[in-house]
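REVIEWER CHECKLIST
Item 1: Sequence provided? yes
Item 2: Single chain? yes
Item 3: Sequence as submitted:
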Amino acid sequence: MFGFKDIEIIRSVVRHGGFRAAADATGLAQSAISRRIRHLEDRMGITIFERAGRGVRLSATGRRLCDEAEMLIAQRDRILEELTQGVMAGVVRLGVAETMTHTLLPRMLTTLRARHPMLRFEISVDTSEQMGQALRDDALDVVIMLRDQAPRGIALTPLPPVRMGWFVSPEHFTLPSPAGIDDLAALPIVSFPKTTIPHRQVLEVMTAGRRKPATVHGSASLATMVNLVQQGFGIGTIPHDIVEAWPQTMLQEIDVLPEANLPRLEFVICHDPERNEEIGREVTRAAVEAGCD
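Item 4: Structure as written out by the authors:
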């Protein structure tokens, strides 16, 4: 219905107090300015200027149009500045495994906010399997996930491995020190969801050479896992960083025999280099720095 040129002409009339002064300031003919504004009023079905003595003034509708148009012009100027001066801005669709949301993620985002204040993040927390599919489908731009489930053909950078441990609420269960697989298997075990690598790793440790399988419960929520262990539902396989981040839970690590040690979780940060090379590199740099803190 109107363009930026229309807005600039209206602003000029307002600033200089009339059509003639606006014509002198812009180098346009007064008749051209009058004709343009009249056509704009006809197209929109509104009155922009009212006669005021020998000059003109904005109508109430015209004032509202100018107020809204100022915001459009400011937005236009911001976009042009970002595009022409290399400012990194816009929305980054970030997928994160929950293990990282309580540790690496806050440090990484704080660094990115300081470097690129115009960036905005939409954060999705899901399993590595689901996020890998979303990355392939271009539903996510950058993903922090387990290495073994990263899609092929993407750029990935390793992050510091995450140590896993056996944890218990000592007020509910007492185990020998060090505890063996049979000691652990005698209690309910809370772990990651059954479709995930950490869950399979727990099953491999707990079923090696045993006739009776252990009872392993799966949860997609780390907060739920920690709460279940804290309330005495069972013992849990939980990342060390998570327990350290929540000292109020008072969970205690179980000293176990070497046979019951859990493998570390190998995480990577990845992106599609064809679609998101620039932002992928920058988020990766911040993630690696956060992992070194």
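Item 5: Key structural point noted by reviewer: The two ends are 54 Å apart (CA to CA).
Item 6: Recommendation: ____
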